[in-house]
Write a structure and sequence with these properties.
- The protein has about 725 residues and is of the alpha+beta class.
- Helix content is about 20%, strand content about 25%.
- The strands form nine sheets. Strands 17-20-23-26-27-28-29-30 form an eight-stranded parallel barrel. Strands 1-2-5-4-3-6-7 form a seven-stranded antiparallel sheet. A six-stranded antiparallel sheet has the order 31-32-33-38-35-36.
- It starts with 13 loop residues before the first helix and ends with a strand.
Length: about 725
């Protein structure tokens, strides 16, 4: 069928005309907009939803030129009178229902990205890439609208689609910047909260509808459009915190982290069990964390993710805090409130893998762009996810710029990097023949190692006082050592070994603990090889592992006593601290991401007492330098006795340079140990600063009447000793006064 209709001979050849109307032209700017056609100027417009188009002189609106429809699908052409010079123009459209609108022509604007931007991106060093890529509200030549930029080097055509063009990918095809694989366009008239996606025509002709990898705001769940957002509006009020943070030495400071999943910390049951909002969290959660004495909140991934059951670990919108709880400015407000009340904010960051959702990064331009082409390198069979190709400069740039984005734009204080072990090893969770060795025949992922080192170097260089934390479960050496010393450069490493050994020990009936004394002393053999965090995280209270309380042996009283002892021991042990939500008051059920914590349990004395203990442990931890000042060196710890396996008792000392040492004794049985002697240096009065069996915590109140005097009796190699009464299943601590 002949679809070309024109009273005059069109100035465009049929091949280019049909390529535009069929949405397969690779260089629309060469066709659309104002062009020289022989001796005359012509303005070409493709707008399928328009019945009529008029070209209007922007400086002289009375001067206008009708455009003729030369293709039934909506291709218009206005051939200007002879000797008409170039001028700034607007396009007036009349729709099929008589609606009229006027806008600037997207194809009348020059290139957006400059040569320096493209060069830095190509070499992987454009650390503020998010200021260029994605959607940005702006003015160009006095015209308000938004710029759109996306990387899709193997696409035939890329278009911006949305309500503004009826989601028709033929209407606003983008300009390809040759050599970079970046596509760009400025669309006049775009306003905040406009919904959009990129329609990508792959090399094989397939049409893909993709969310913006750099979107600042997105829908979640089954609705997956990206939203244009004004990122310049928010004004921070946390200047004092940010200045103080620059000089913080976190290795020498107390860090007590409350790990939170925002969707299940608390819900509004009387309103359909809805989530709280970021604004509500800024009051309820922040006030709670302050009251409990924590130093930091760690949020399980807040980046946009479609599936609630992934807990946020399968990210599709790396630059967008999830819209489940509010918009980006409301999340900023939450962080701002944390800082104003002295609480740092850590977020879980997931650069190890991403999901296969059709709207996400998977086969983004029809090829394995962000992931490896070979599934032996590019897929996690266990998780059903894809692995980033860290050897590609642009992919590394996407991830490093993302880390910097959270630190810069959201004032985040720390990034806990998920699943580092899966990144380091090519054979991670793979059988023989299912992985590809590196260039030297080894199992180490050299590209991922380089990426992690570079990520840490750039983050610490640009934002002193932040922290990066590795969730790394193997014996990889130097995870938290600087890269110039051969390490990966992280600030801290989760101590997964401590968590495993202690949970195994604590789950034993006390009568059997005498045979497993080594489980709770082994961690001190390696405690100072890394900057460790002791963690009791969400991973230990799901998938049939039971809650921490339910792991404890014995009757009801013993379960609570065991957990109180465990927490007291954790805080006395070298290493920073992290406790998952609900653990602080003894949640009985396994964690469920779809429901609130069981806050009603706090009406019971035992749960209320456990929460009070955790609160007091946090305050004690922050008050006593011996618990943090020499946290990463043998100088800060000394065993007094770890040989008394028969009684399941250990005693040790924590030391500092600025305060007196602290003495701790742990009785891991329900038997009260009368007249138990512990060696100390020096005479004097030793105040009992901790007793996890105290009545206020729900215990039996066995103790030492608040203090003991050192006897001049040499014991355990010390000049003096304390004659103690060790409570059952408890930790007691003393400080010389």
């Amino acid at each position: 069928m002949n679809t070309t209709i024109s009273p005059d001979k069109p100035t465009i050849d049929d091949g280019a005309l049909h390529a535009i109307t069929e949405g397969r032209h690779g260089d629309p700017f060469a066709v659309l907009g104002m062009h020289q056609a022989g001796e005359r100027l012509v303005v070409r417009v493709f707008r399928p939803d328009a019945r009529e188009v008029t070209v209007i002189d922007e400086d002289d609106p009375k001067r206008s030129f009708p455009a003729h429809r030369i293709h039934l699908d909506g291709f218009f052409e206005a051939v200007l009178p002879a000797n008409t010079g170039r001028f700034k123009y607007l396009l007036k459209f009349t729709g099929f229902h008589g609606v009229e609108w006027t806008t600037a022509d997207p194809y009348s604007f020059l290139q957006i990205l400059g040569a320096v931007d493209l060069h830095l991106f190509a070499e992987g060093n454009h650390f503020k890439l998010y200021e260029k890529m994605g959607a940005h509200l702006t003015e160009v030549d006095g015209i308000a609208g938004a710029t759109f930029c996306v990387w899709a080097p193997n696409a035939q055509r890329v278009s911006v689609v949305g309500d503004f063009n009826q989601w028709d990918g033929r209407t606003n095809p983008m300009r390809k910047l040759l050599g970079s694989g970046v596509w760009e366009i400025f669309l006049p008239g775009i306003v905040e909260l406009t919904h959009y996606k990129f329609e990508i025509k792959a090399a094989n002709g397939a049409l893909l509808l993709k969310s913006d990898p750099f979107a600042f705001f997105s829908q979640h769940g089954t609705a997956t459009a990206s939203l244009v957002f004004d990122f310049t509006r928010y004004r921070w009020s946390d200047g004092k915190w940010m200045e103080k943070r620059k000089v913080m030495e976190w290795h020498r400071s107390p860090i007590s982290i409350y790990e939170v999943h925002l969707g299940s910390w608390a819900r509004v049951t009387e309103e359909g069990n809805r989530w709280l909002s970021y604004v509500e969290f800024a009051v309820r959660l922040v006030d709670y964390v302050v009251k409990m004495g924590y130093t930091h909140i760690e949020l399980m991934p807040v980046a946009e993710h479609p599936f609630d059951g992934s807990w946020g670990y399968q990210v599709t919108g790396y630059y967008a805090p999830t819209s489940r709880f509010g918009n980006p400015d409301e999340f900023r407000y939450f962080v701002d409130c944390c800082h104003q009340k002295g609480i740092g904010v850590i977020i879980d960051w997931v650069p190890g893998h991403f999901p296969k959702d059709a709207h996400g990064l998977a086969e983004f331009d029809g090829t394995r762009l962000y992931e490896h082409a070979d599934p032996r390198q590019g897929e996690h069979a266990d998780w059903g996810t894809l692995i980033f190709n860290y050897g590609r400069n642009e992919v590394r740039n996407f991830l490093i710029a993302n880390a910097l984005f959270w630190l810069e734009e959201y004032h985040i204080d720390g990034l806990r990097v998920d699943a580092v072990a899966s990144m380091l090893y090519l054979d991670y969770s793979r059988k023989e023949g299912e992985w590809i060795p590196n260039a030297y025949g080894g199992r180490e992922n050299l590209d991922a190692i380089y990426f992690l080192k570079r990520f840490n170097e750039v983050c610490y260089d640009r934002y002193p006082g932040i922290m990066t934390i590795a969730e790394e479960s193997t014996a990889w050496p130097g995870v938290s050592r600087p890269t110039y010393l051969g390490g990966l450069g992280f600030g801290f490493k989760w101590n997964m070994g401590w968590m495993h050994d202690f949970l195994v020990y604590m789950s034993l009936d006390p009568v059997h603990r005498r045979f497993h004394q080594g489980d709770v002393t082994f961690s001190l053999l390696y405690a100072f090889h890394e900057h460790f965090m002791l963690v009791l995280s969400h991973d230990e209270v799901v998938h049939g592992k039971r809650s921490l309380m339910d792991k404890m042996p014995g009757d009801l009283w013993q379960k609570f006593a065991n957990l109180r002892m465990f927490y007291g021991w954790m805080y006395a042990h070298p290493g920073k601290k992290l406790l998952f939500q609900g653990g602080e008051f003894g949640q009985w059920e396994e964690w469920n991401h779809n429901k609130s914590l069981d806050w009603h349990l706090l009406q019971y004395r035992e749960h209320d007492g456990l929460q009070r203990l955790v609160q007091h442990l946090n305050y004690l931890y922050k008050k006593e330098p011996a618990l943090s000042e020499l946290d990463d060196t043998y100088e800060g710890f000394e065993w007094i006795d770890f040989h008394d396996a028969d009684n399941s008792v250990v005693a040790f000392m924590r030391k500092s340079k600025s305060g007196p040492p602290l003495i701790f004794a742990v009785n891991c049985t329900p038997v009260v140990r009368e007249y138990y002697r512990v060696g100390v240096w020096g005479e004097g009065r030793y105040e009992e600063i901790l007793n996890t069996d105290a009545e206020t915590y729900g215990g039996s109140n066995v103790g030492n009447y608040g203090a003991v005097w050192a006897d001049p009796i040499s014991w355990q190699g010390k000049s003096h000793s304390l004659c103690l009464r060790l409570p059952p299943l408890a930790v007691i601590g003393f400080k010389k006064v």
